[in-house]
TrEMBL record:
Keywords recorded for this protein, A-Z: Developmental protein, Disulfide bond, EGF-like domain, Repeat, Signal
Listed GO biological process terms: cell communication
One cellular component term from this protein's GO annotations in UniProt: membrane
Alphabetical list of InterPro entries matching this protein: DSL, EGF
Protein name in the entry: EGF-like domain-containing protein
Domain EGF-like: 202-240
The keyword Signal belongs to this UniProt entry's keyword annotation: yes
Signal peptide (residue range): 1-21
Gene3D superfamilies the UniProt entry points to: 2.10.25.140
Length: 256
């Protein structure tokens, strides 16, 4: 019997493994459930004459608009003679994230029957788009659509996934660097004392300064400046501690 493609639900769940290389900003862990009760290929034929399907999953994860699998491309291990694969029995797929991913990510999953070194037969194909900011350490359901326009089998497919990022976000690059910066829960850099700038690569000259208590210190690439605000009529040096008492008296005199 021929079927029309219908939406299916993919549930992604990410497993907690808090080990990262210095170049990684996070990891994505995937695991699936698969059910093909009669062991049928997409064209209606049996996977094997006597045995059931030898199943593996091919996964492509990419940023929206990318023409290649720029986040991940690979396949799972082979599961021989299975019509059903439970989540607990499948070895999770680890996807290291070495660069920021977009807020919207596209994923394609092809399910294949392995018939030898040079042959594989398609069982089913699914595509989906999900928002990375909606993912967390809890299980998240993501809608996907079966993309086989015509198929003669009934395949139930679910996935489980969970996202783990040390800086709290995989959309920003923030890797803690000893003596340079830490990361907050949103993935923003927090510069260590003595450093400043978006990348924490500039010297903060205001860490040690002789500005007066009423002055504001502003750091520049080649030094710092004391800004007196209400005392702008006074010379630059009057904002410094050595002139603090004298400058206050001068300001009071000028104000009269």
């Amino acid at each position: 019997m021929w079927h029309v493609a219908i939406p299916v639900t993919l549930i992604l769940t990410f497993f907690y493994i808090p080990v990262f290389s210095k170049d990684e900003i996070g990891k994505l862990y995937l695991s699936f459930e698969y059910y093909n009760p009669n062991g049928i290929l997409v064209d209606g034929d049996k996977c094997d004459f006597l045995d059931t399907c030898d199943v593996y999953f091919f996964i492509c994860v990419k940023n929206i608009g990318s023409t290649s699998c720029d986040i991940y491309e690979g396949k799972s291990e082979l599961y021989e003679n299975v019509n059903e694969l439970k989540f607990a029995k499948m070895k999770e797929i680890v996807i290291p994230l070495n660069s920021p991913i977009g807020n919207s990510v596209e994923m394609g999953i092809d399910i294949w029957d392995f018939d030898g070194l040079d042959a594989s037969d398609l069982i089913a194909r699914f595509d989906g788009i999900f928002q990375t900011k909606s993912l967390s350490m809890k299980w998240t359901k993501i809608p996907v659509t079966r993309t086989d326009l015509i198929y003669q089998n009934d395949v139930t497919f679910k996935g489980f996934a969970r996202l783990e990022c040390p800086g709290g976000s995989c959309n920003k690059v923030c890797v803690p660097r000893k003596g340079i910066n830490t990361c907050d829960a949103e993935g923003n850099k927090i510069c260590e004392k003595g450093l400043t700038g978006p990348a924490c690569d500039q010297i903060d000259y205001c860490v040690e300064n002789n500005c007066a208590d009423y002055a504001t210190c502003e750091s520049f690439p080649n030094g710092y400046k004391c800004i007196c605000g209400a005392y702008e009529a006074i010379s630059f040096k009057s904002c410094q501690i050595v002139y603090q008492v004298l400058d206050v008296k001068r300001v009071m005199t000028l104000a009269r």
